[in-house]
Fold:
Amino acid sequence: MKIYIKYMVSIRCKMVVKSILKKLGLHFIVVDLGEVEIMETLTAEQHGQLAIALHEAGLELMDDKRAVLIEKIKNVIIEMVHYSDEMIKINFSDFLSKKLNHDYTYLANLFSEVQGTTIEHFIISHKVERIKELIIYDELNITEIAWKLNYSSVAHLSNQFKKVTGLSPSHFKQLKVKRRNPIEDVGNE
Structure:
């Protein structure tokens, strides 16, 4: 049985969900961002217990098909931007369409309607947050970061970064206190 979980955006969230499932005596096959497959079919009582345990951990069980699809879109973006070593080299709309088995126009319209922002803006917000993270780690220079995140040029990265943060990447690097946002808050302003 598949279960969909809102706000499940990190490896730590996956660990928390696995722990909750074990405590409830449920056996999981796969635990991915926003999606869990368990061996059992949940009873109403188990569903309620799981919903409460997830809520206490800051997560939410989802039953609405539209909400599930929105979370899938977010999780594909988060996985691609934050956890993939290589950005996809094909058109993102084609990638998302194939990955979620829906027409991109439908996905984009649904996302905009429910989230109040576009998929493109959500991606840009996450890419800028990832740039901040990579600048703070100080292992890559701006050119390498631009390449890693599939920007056409350093200028394109810098312009997008400045448009979102109000700072150039080099100015951000010089700040004493670097402000980053939790992944679950990015793109939801």
Remarks:
- Residues 108 and 179 are 29 Å apart (CA to CA).
- The longest strand covers residues 2-6.
